[in-house]
């Protein structure tokens, strides 16, 4: 699996992401500066990491979403190429129009940095094939604007088409407002586009991949992606 | 030419920041505030003189493509 991690000014999780991709796939990851107009040849997976691109000025992800490299990402996605956006990456994907909706200020107005539980809704996607449907995983979140909002029609379409891949849940997989730390509609933590090849999620699976991190629940996402490309090759 | 673009949240979109400001006003003892919605103001200077139609078109494009996220926000353009 050849992956490219985008780098914007103010991003700070790009090295965590590159390290995880290297550990799980065995391949070096290309770091692609925001001013580039093309992705490295043979890129299978584009990853937009977390952080605070452009200091969250204007709106989270708004300025990064208009940078030159995003045209190349749009073209990659239009060809069916896989794109993963985590945290600020999810916000950038929403601002760029690659995913619907928007991430608003957390309902409690607090920046929340801790582990959360996610229910994996389905396992028949390149992003979740490393898990079982209904499985609950523990991964960290670190965001102030993770409260997913979209109009009723969009939410109905996302739900109807099975495009919600991750939801905030209890450790037993119960969806309950008490376990929805940011107030997202329907406890939405991660969604895919209509083509199923662009995933945005607020939690950080890349930070739970080695036993030294205290948990390896995030590894399945990356291991599943590697399997997806091995099968394709 | 000077212009002002005002961006506000659409009706029905929850505004936690506005709510927090509303609560702070109440705790200051400023009575009579029914609700607060927070928005943004952009003061923009347009190059060149006085083609109002061109200025409006440019500002509309700026608002649609960057200044506002029209999923959740409305905007108003004023030429001053």
Description:
The complex is a heterodimer of chains A (233) and B (80). With 233 residues, chain A is an alpha/beta fold. Chain A is built from five helices and eleven strands. Chain A has a single domain, classed as 3-Layer(aba) Sandwich (Rossmann fold). Chain A is 23% helix and 24% strand. In chain A, the strands form two sheets. Chain A has a nine-stranded mixed beta sheet, with helices on both faces. The longest helix of chain A has 14 residues, at 219-232. The termini of chain A are close together. The model of chain A has no long low-confidence stretch (mean pLDDT 96). Chain B is α+β, with helices and mostly antiparallel strands and 80 residues long. Chain B has a single domain, classed as Phosphoribosylformylglycinamidine synthase subunit PurS (Mth169, Chain: A), CATH 3.30.1280. Chain B has helices at residues 16-27, 52-67; strands at 2-9, 40-45, 73-79. A three-stranded antiparallel beta sheet of chain B has the order 2-1-3, with helices on one face. The chains are: A alpha/beta (233), B alpha+beta (80).
In a nutshell, what does this entry contain?
The complex is a heterodimer of chains A (233) and B (80). Chain A is of the alpha/beta class.
